[in-house]
Amino acid sequence: MRERTDAIRFEAKLLRPAEPKNATWAFFVLPKAASAKLPTRSMVSVDGTLGGAPFQATLEPDGDGSHWLKVEKKLREAAGAAIGDSVALEIAPVEVEPEPVVPPDVRKALAAHPAAKAQWATLTSVARRDWIHWITSGKKAETRVKRIAVTCDKLACGQRRACCFDRSGRFSKGNMGAPEAAD
């Protein structure tokens, strides 16, 4: 990560998620003071270093006014950090939000709905990310299927944003939030 004057520096403890039991990834929750320096309480992409190892990722809201990040095993190992360690982090919001990865089932549905696909192409990367997050945040497979259909219908009618989607996670804690930490 290049040196930036708007860099946010802090330490956070790497935690193991309670579920799934065999998870190889870890996570950390930003201290509220560090999170408060970010431009939004909702998802925000950052460039950063974890224990000196560079990364780019999208922080997610924890539903309590802060953010959290899933740390894959590869990044954790590059940082030389173990579960339970407190690690030094430095993050800064990216200048341009990256384009989200569109899941194959969403891509297929958009391809089958030309008007929805045309509207999708006009959206910002943040709006596309919100739609994808709303679709994938359902807990059941049938909810996901329904949300994909609703998304295509709403986009085809000209809607640009996922209606009633709480980007901060504060009011819909069932859909967003940091994982529960294992003991």
Radius of gyration: 17 Å
Could you give the count of β-strands? 6
State the low-pLDDT regions, or none: none
Percent helix, as a range, is 25-40%
Report strand %.
Answer: 15-25%
Question: Tell me about the biggest sheet?
Answer: 6 strands, antiparallel
CATH superfamily of the domain at 8-93: AF2212/PG0164-like
Give the terminus-to-terminus CA distance: 33 Å
Task: Write down the CATH class of the domain at 8-93.
Answer: Mainly Beta
Choose one word for the global shape. globular
Spatial order of the strands forming the largest sheet = 1-6-3-4-5-2
Helix run count: 6
Structural class: alpha+beta
**CATH topology type of the domain at 8-93:** Elongation Factor Tu (Ef-tu), domain 3
In the CATH classification, which architecture of the domain at 8-93 applies?
Answer: Beta Barrel
The ordered H/E elements are: EEHEEEHEHHHH
Mean pLDDT, as a whole number? 89
